[in-house]
Design goal:
By secondary structure, the chain is of the alpha/beta class. The chain has 14 helices and 21 strands. Helix 3 packs across helix 4, helix 5 runs antiparallel to helix 9 and helix 9 runs parallel beside helix 14. Bound molecules: ligand BES, manganese (II) ion (MN) and zinc ion.
Length: about 500
């Protein structure tokens, strides 16, 4: 979708469709009111007759309004003015996008960015519009023989801003929103891919394809023999039961100064998690194709960085494996030596995410990182603890956790911090190795997994995002969400601004 920003009166717009808001109960927004004066009070008449209450989710399409330059007007319900908050606004933007898609109009001018949303500025509103519109147009039909895309989808949306001095902010917000939406889309496409096609090797090819698309990205792939040589015994243990060879994918983005330390993003890339010999129950097992969503979000975030040309150094590290119960598979009780030199007794082969991540974290030390953030669909326990709205956040460095919380609030891609106290650590004691890969009880499972990882993250500032509940939706709307790309992109945007980035204003 193409987006543009404009500042002008609604009655002056020559367009296929004009989208205007109606508050509950039957009250036009100021822009709609202004438009209505130009067409002789037609809209107010209509509202008085009770044709549209203005409730969230409602809309009404009108043609040939008297005295109007626009072909159509789409009235969209905004709910009560006082109640217009983050969630409502996103829903409003999504509804508007869906309704516009059904009109047959190929371009539209929308008057939504002027509506007051509690605690939110124009920049936020425009980014949310862009992200919500792209979200509502997303469909994954690559593998359907009959495509279900709309016949005449909306091609161009012009977002109106209050005044001419808002244009620059608006255009920057569109650039950021589009870059984030592009990263989200890539992450969803990778996540939704079936596990017979999305193998570790295929993921590596996708990273290389992305690097082919953006000259500022460089992809390299470590093969099993090289990992063996490095001593990544934990990562390789997970891969043994699979016919698919493991890959360690690195994507470099180096647009900061040579002195700037890189931000390293480590994404769990289990392309299918059967549980291994500690086999999972059958019900819903198909969803374990999403166990590579952390990896997908790393590629999506790097795509957004490249598109925005952020002046930063960022490294993506993706341990990609398939967790299968083959004849060579790791057994419960096996002891392996990790890249760090620490030995691990694998008591449950289904706790595989931490095994591939621990070696990737040790490997990240070589980059002398400014910070390392790992992203992983790590534990079912995280869903039990937090549900499916926030990512679980853990960190060994409070300022890093704080920066992620700020980015989460700004991007509306929420996190909730859980503790990493030393008290928990003894739960991982093993009689036979330096540690076990699971705790003796199921208590605090998300925390115990994070505690395991923390033992491999002692040499840098580190945060861990458990995205088990947030990376995809289950049920009827099953599909990848593209999260936490908005959060990670915002975190990096904030770092770029900190480093003196002018938001690309000079360049445009
Ligand atoms: N990939 C799963 C975690 C998961 C499960 C995410 C369900 C989303 C939905 C992970 O590899 C796993 O199997 N974790 C185990 C850990 C346990 C064996 C300590 C879990 O959560 O049951
Ligand atoms: Mn598992
Ligand atoms: Zn897993």
């Amino acid at each position: 979708m193409e987006f543009a920003v404009k500042s002008g009166h609604p009655e002056k717009q020559r367009t296929a469709c004009l989208a205007l808001g109606v508050y509950e109960s039957r009250r036009l927004t100021p822009d709609a009111e202004r438009f209505d004066r130009a067409c002789g009070g037609y809209l107010n008449n209509l509202l008085r007759r009770g044709d549209l209450e203005g409730k969230p989710g409602q809309s009404l399409l009108l043609f040939n309004l008297p005295g109007a330059l626009t072909e159509r007007v789409l009235l969209v319900g905004c709910g009560r003015e006082r109640e217009l908050d983050d969630r409502r606004f996103r829903q409003l933007a999504a509804h508007t996008a869906k309704a516009l898609n059904d009109t047959g109009a190929m371009d539209a001018v929308v008057y939504l960015a002027d509506l007051p949303v509690k605690g939110r500025d124009l920049d936020w509103k425009i980014r949310q519009i862009v992200e919500a519109v792209e979200e509502s147009h997303y469909h994954f039909d690559q593998l359907k023989s009959k495509k279900d895309a709309p016949r005449r989808p909306l091609r161009k949306m012009t977002i109106n801003v209050p005044g001419r001095r808002d244009l620059a902010i608006g255009e920057q917000a569109v650039r950021e929103g589009s870059a984030i939406a592009g990263g989200v889309k890539l992450t969803k496409d990778l996540g939704n891919m079936p596990p017979n096609l999305c193998t570790p090797a295929w993921l590596a090819e996708q990273a290389q394809a992305l690097a082919g698309e953006f000259p500022t990205l460089q992809a390299t792939v470590l093969e099993e023999a090289e990992m063996e040589q490095l001593g990544m015994g934990a990562l390789l243990a997970v891969s043994r039961g699979s016919a698919q060879p493991a890959k360690l994918i690195r994507v470099n983005y180096r647009q900061g100064s040579a002195l700037q330390k890189p931000f390293v993003l480590v994404g769990k890339g289990v392309t299918f998690d059967t549980g291994g010999i500690s086999l999972k129950p059958g019900e819903g097992m198909d969803e374990m194709k999403y166990d590579m969503c952390g990896a997908a979000s790393v590629l999506g975030t790097l795509r957004a960085c490249a598109e925005l040309q952020l002046p930063l150094n960022v490294t993506g590290l993706i341990p990609a494996v398939e967790n299968m119960p083959g004849g060579q598979a790791t057994r419960p009780g096996d002891i392996v030596t990790s890249l760090s030199g620490q030995t691990v007794e694998i008591l449950n082969t289904d706790a595989e995410g931490r095994l591939i991540l621990c070696d990737a974290l040790s490997y990240a030390e070589r980059d002398e990182p400014a910070a390392v953030i790992d992203i992983a669909t790590l534990t079912g326990a995280c869903i039990i603890a937090l549900g499916r709205h926030p990512h679980g956040l853990f960190s060994n460095h409070p300022p890093l956790a704080h920066a992620l919380q700020i980015a989460a609030a700004a991007s509306s891609d929420r996190v909730w911090e859980l503790p990493l106290w030393d008290d928990y650590q003894e739960g991982l004691d093993s009689n036979f190795a330096d540690m076990a890969n699971i705790a003796g009880s199921r208590d605090g499972g998300a925390i115990m997994a994070a505690c395991f990882l923390s033992r491999f993250a002692k040499k840098f500032h580190w945060a861990h995002l458990d995205i088990a509940g947030t990376a995809w939706k289950t049920g009827k709307a099953k599909g990848a969400t593209g999260r936490p790309v908005p959060l990670l992109a915002q975190y990096l945007l904030d770092r770029a601004v900190e480093a003196g980035w002018d938001n690309g204003r000079a360049a445009h």
